[in-house]
Structure formats: C-alpha cells, structure tokens
Specification:
There is one protein chain. The chain is α/β, with parallel strands linked by helices. The protein has two domains: 58 residues, Orthogonal Bundle (DNA polymerase, domain 1); 280 residues, TIM Barrel. The protein is 34% helix and 18% strand. It contains twelve helices and twelve strands. The strands form two sheets. The protein has a ten-stranded mixed β-sheet with strand order 1-2-3-4-7-8-9-10-11-12, with helices on one face. A two-stranded antiparallel sheet has the order 5-6. Helix 5 runs parallel beside helix 6 and helix 7 runs parallel beside helix 10. The model has no long low-confidence stretch (mean pLDDT 93). The protein binds S-adenosyl-L-homocysteine and iron/sulfur cluster (SF4).
Length: 345
Amino acid sequence: MDLSNLEEILNPPGGGEPKYRIKQAKEAVFKNLISDWSEATFFSKELRDKLNEECPLEIKADVLVSKKEDSVKARITLKDGLIIEAVLMRHADGRNTVCVSSQVGCPLGCLFCATGKMGFKRNLSANEILEQVVFFDRYLKSENQKVTNVTFMGMGEPFLNYENVWEAVEILNDHKYFNIGARSISISTAGIIKGIEKLSQEKLHVNLAISLHAPNDKLRSSLMPINKRFPLKDVLKAVEDYVKKTNRKVMFEYVLIKGMNDSNEDAMELAKIMDKKLYFINLILYNETLSAGEAGIFKPSETKRVEAFRAILEELKIRYTQRYRFGDDIQAACGQFATSNNPHM
Ligand code: SAH
Ligand code: SF4
C-alpha cells in the first residue's frame, strides 16, 4: 500500500477534485477497508485507474499465527523493500490490540532488545503506521470484528518520530476513520523527555508507558544507553509534570531479566521510586530473542525469583500487573521484533 501521493493526485496544484474527495478516499481505505480503488465508485473510472497505478492498496505481508491462535504476526514489506512487523493480540474479553512499529529498527540500541540490535533504518510515515492497522482490520473483517486498541510498542522509539506518530494517532482516533478511543491508544517510550513533554500538551489524552527496566542509573545505563543522556531523575521529573498536567495514569514497564534486575534489592529500590499516585508497574518476563552471538546473556527470571520480586512489591503496596505472554512461539512478543530486512528471506 502506498498513499504517499494520494493528496497530490486528488488535489493537484491548480485545482483537481474538491477537498472533500480526499476525506472520501481516506474513509474508503481506513473505514470501509477497500483493497482496490475499483471499489471507490464515487470516483471516475479514469481516476480509479490512476489511483490503482499510483496509490496501490494491496498490502504485501506474510502472516504467522501462534499455536493458541491468540496472536498473529504480520511482516509487512514497504514500498522501498524494507520490512516491518506488527502483531495482533486477541484478548479473551473481545478486545483486538495491534502493536505497531513506528520506525524500521531503532537507534537506541537497548542491549536486551532485538530491534535495538538491528540498528536504525528510517522513520515510518503516518500512512505506513496506519497501514499496519488497516492490515489487521481487513484480517478481522471476515469475523465482523475490528481493531479496538493500538499500542506503539513494536519496532522503534515513537518519540523519535513524534510528528508522524501523532498524525497517525489523530487519524486512528478520528470517528470518520478508525474511531479508536484515545484511552485505547498507548505510546511507550524509553524515556525521550521532549516527547513526554509534548504529549502532556496534546488535547487528546492517550496512555503513556515508560520502559523503565531498572531502578537506578547505574543499572539502567548498562541496559539502556539512552539513560546516559536522559537519566532517571530527569525522566521521572518529566513524568511527574505529565501527571500534574493530565491527571492520567502512567505505566512503567519492567522486564525481568535473570540475574540483572530481579534481586530483592532491585524490587525494594523500584518500590521506592514507584510509590506515587497514578503510577503502576507492568512486569514483563524477558522474551529470549534467539540472537546467536549473545544467546545466554539475557534470560528470563526464574519463576521463584519473579514470585519473590512480586511479593516485595505487594508488601510495599505498589500497584503492578504482570503481562500475559502473547505469541512467544512466533517471535511476536515484546522486544522480539526484528527482521533481517532481506525481502528474500
Ligand atoms: N522503543 C519503545 C517502544 C517499544 S515497546 C520502548 O522501548 O518503550 C517494547 C517493550 O518491550 C519495551 O518496554 C521494551 O523495553 C521491551 N522489550 C524489549 N526487548 C524485550 C524482550 N526481549 N523481552 C521483553 N520485553 C522486551
Ligand atoms: Fe528501541 Fe525500545 Fe528496543 Fe530500546 S527497547 S532498542 S528503545 S525498541
């Protein structure tokens, strides 16, 4: 799918189709989910042919379904041949959450993350972000279902691509198009302070998640190099300001990695910095990323350790949830998003 020339074709300089035509076209793609412009009968035959030529709606993707059938991974090939991944998670309560990528790769290089290891290729456009949701809306259509929630927790750091991410968020929320409530949209950041500040000024109140993963600077910097530029104290200050402005809950993601950040001391230190109204922790069991060279360095914490860690949080009355593991058998769980970006593989 490539909508990059849509507005230019429908509204060329010097006048073409009237402005509402652009809305009509977007409604056809984002809401009515047409996959060929020939279905857009409100346009002339000539225009439909031109759109099929220059703004193809076909989405090139490989699909993998998990054994339990509750998660589906799509590897989408973009028009320049680069590949991104998006995952659909089908919750027992009927929600259909899509985890979207915001960049091809990621420049932040967190040591435990498969996307970080890929390095950075480029930012995604708003349309390329939306394409991932359209793909799953088409997928769910035969079951009379649609995407109900979107999380920016796929490849990339959303706040390093703020403008495009926000353009996509507004279209996702728009009742004319996807009609997904702001409360059903979440953005996760490794701690880009400018992004947190900008988000707090938006009228639309989407959910904010912070990838914390360590309770102090020494440990955090060793896992997430970005912490050297934006240390914990500054990130937490930005979050405090965000909470003051928006009065919204904030989720802190904490991935439990064996022997790295899962000791009793870590839990106690974590409890200290998280003991705030509207904060809650989301514990994630580390998903092994099967990278040959570094296999064995990062492992999920053992069950007993996780239990001890949770017991401390409970005793100290810290709010937390533990994330259900979707799709680890198809490499579709958090942090497993990586592609070789070789379209022939
Ligand atoms: N770049 C953003 C958005 C990605 S969200 C961010 O880091 O917040 C994906 C979440 O999964 C992040 O919290 C990330 O730190 C975490 N993650 C990365 N690798 C993981 C792994 N192998 N197992 C579990 N979680 C992982
Ligand atoms: Fe990038 Fe997030 Fe992975 Fe870190 S955890 S490398 S910020 S995608």
